[in-house]
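sry for the spam today, last one i promise. struct tokens for design, 169 residues
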């Protein structure tokens, strides 16, 4: 008897879903699937973060961010921005204790400047300026009122100036 009721309930749910699927436009189906993916990713990321598995929650957070399309950034751009923040944190120039503090000019080495801009030695001056401008468009303090982006913007400017001063003067 219980299996019979469960079977009928499942049949009705499947029927209603297929009926909705047949009558709805493809655009609405796509937005619904996108919303479901964002919500499921949010739930999985929260569960993994609560369980202490932060590294496993990152892909789900990237799906959420690309699904929401915050400020027009794609998942690849969010990943590149995350890599930039991780590089700066690991270099010691952008650690957690420094967000609220104003700092003097820091000396960025040539290698760090190239890594920061995502370039290799031997590139042209135009490539340096283009890479710096692309990063500034993403993280400029006027676009994002976050203290973290102010420091990132300052470091990108320092890296650009360092490369231009040492390699192109």
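last one done:
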């Amino acid at each position: 008897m219980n299996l019979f009721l469960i079977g009928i309930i499942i049949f009705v749910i499947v029927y209603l879903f297929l009926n909705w699927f047949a009558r709805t436009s493809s655009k609405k189906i796509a937005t619904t699937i996108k919303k479901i993916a964002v919500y499921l990713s949010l739930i999985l990321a929260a569960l993994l973060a609560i369980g202490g598995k932060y590294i496993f929650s990152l892909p789900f957070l990237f799906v959420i961010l690309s699904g929401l399309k915050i400020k027009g950034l794609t998942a690849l751009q969010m990943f590149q921005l995350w890599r930039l923040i991780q590089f700066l944190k690991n270099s010691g120039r952008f650690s957690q204790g420094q967000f609220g503090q104003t700092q003097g000019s820091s000396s960025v080495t040539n290698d760090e400047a190239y890594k920061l801009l995502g370039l290799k030695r031997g590139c042209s001056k135009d490539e340096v300026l283009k890479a710096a401008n692309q990063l500034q468009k993403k993280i400029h303090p006027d676009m994002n009122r976050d203290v973290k982006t102010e420091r990132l913007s300052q470091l990108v400017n320092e890296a650009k100036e360092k490369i231009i001063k040492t390699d192109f003067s």
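The longest helix spans residues 26-50. ok im logging off now
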